[in-house]
């Protein structure tokens, strides 16, 4: 019988050992990713994304849930866009929780940064709003 997964302090989710699908990918990490070009041109573009999926899914799945990251300053009154602190990563300004998607782990490139637990708490609230999930507690 397998022992239960350990809980990760950083993400508040369980992590398990074994598997190799996305073994180094962690919730809260920002990666460059090769994504389909949405402008109508054929091909792929490289864009930064934030991993929002839990660490068990990241470890065992070939695809993961991410949110787009932008270099543009967000509108101050839009609750689905979360500022990235300036000292986190050069050129990255905000996470867009109104633009979440699945990507194959093979599309991820270089790890660019990791968000703090405080910023991830803001991301969690924006995800809750974006997905229309009720508050618990």
List keywords for this structure.
SH3 type barrels, 6-stranded antiparallel sheet, alpha+beta, 137 residues, two-stranded antiparallel sheet, 15% helix
Provide a descriptive summary of the structure in words.
The protein is α+β, with helices and mostly antiparallel strands. Helices cover 15% and strands 36% of the residues. It has a single domain, classed as SH3 type barrels, CATH 2.30.30. The chain has two helices and eight strands. It is globular. It starts with 5 loop residues before the first strand and ends in a 6-residue tail after the last helix. The relative contact order is 0.21.
CATH class: Mainly Beta
CATH architecture: Roll
Number of helices: 2
Sheet with the most strands, sense and barrel status: 6 strands, antiparallel
Please state the average pLDDT score: 83
Shape estimate: globular
Tell me the span between the first and last alpha carbons.
33 Å
**From the alpha-carbon coordinates, what is the Rg to the nearest angstrom?**
15 Å
Give the fraction of residues assigned to helices. Answer: 10-25%
Strand count = 8
Q: Report the portion of residues in β strands.
A: 35-45%
> CATH topology, which one?
SH3 type barrels
Coarse structural class: alpha+beta
Query: Quaternary status of these chains?
Result: single chain
Number of domain modules: 1
Q: SSE string, helix = H, strand = E?
A: EEEEHEEEEH
List low-pLDDT spans.
Answer: 1-20
Question: Can you list the strand order of the major beta sheet?
Answer: 6-7-5-4-3-8
């Amino acid at each position: 019988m397998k022992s239960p997964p350990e809980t990760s302090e950083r993400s508040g989710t369980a992590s398990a050992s074994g598997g190799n699908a996305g073994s180094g990918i962690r919730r809260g990490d920002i990666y460059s990713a090769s994504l389909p070009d949405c402008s109508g041109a054929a091909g792929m573009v490289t864009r930064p994304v934030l991993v929002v999926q839990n660490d068990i899914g990241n470890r065992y799945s070939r695809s993961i849930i991410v949110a787009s990251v932008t270099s543009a300053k967000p509108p101050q009154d839009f609750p689905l866009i979360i500022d990235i602190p300036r000292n986190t990563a050069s050129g990255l300004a905000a996470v867009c929780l109104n633009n979440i998607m699945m990507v194959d782990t093979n599309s991820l490139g270089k790890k660019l940064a990791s968000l703090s637990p405080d910023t991830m708490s803001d991301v969690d609230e924006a995800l809750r709003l974006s997905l229309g999930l009720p508050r618990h507690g």
